[in-house]
Amino acid sequence: MRVHHPPKKGIHLRVTEQDYALLLAGTFMLLSSCKLAQVDPALKEKLKQNTVTLESEYEKLEKSDLNNWENIRGPSLWEDSRTVQKQRREALHLKQSD
């Protein structure tokens, strides 16, 4: 004769403290990100006052002289920035004195 044992309760769903912590942390992160997504009304008003349009930026670009520009190289990692700046100043001074 076969003895029938009842199934163990909770064998399929084992929830640990780590799972609860992850659930709480995820909820907190979602709530905080929703608060960040909302725009502050004072910031919204400040952005409305700043009227930078595509046309105004295009006018600035048209006014600038794009044909006469100078490529300025920054110092490499192994170079001292002060000596490079000093050399540039001397070269600029020599160029202006010519």
Automatic annotation (TrEMBL):
Q: Name one GO cellular component term.
A: mitochondrial inner membrane
- Could you tell me where this protein is found in the cell? Mitochondrion inner membrane
Q: How does it sit in the membrane?
A: Single-pass membrane protein
Q: One matching Pfam family, short form?
A: COX16
- Keyword annotations for this protein? Membrane, Mitochondrion, Mitochondrion inner membrane, Transmembrane, Transmembrane helix
Give a yes or no for keyword Transmembrane in this entry: yes
Name the major location. Answer: mitochondrion
GO BP terms: namely: mitochondrial respiratory chain complex IV assembly
Q: Which family does it belong to?
A: Belongs to the COX16 family.
Supply the name of the protein: Cytochrome c oxidase assembly protein COX16 homolog, mitochondrial
Q: Which organism is it from?
A: Lepidothrix coronata (blue-crowned manakin)
| Biological classification of the source | Eukaryota, Metazoa, Chordata, Craniata, Vertebrata
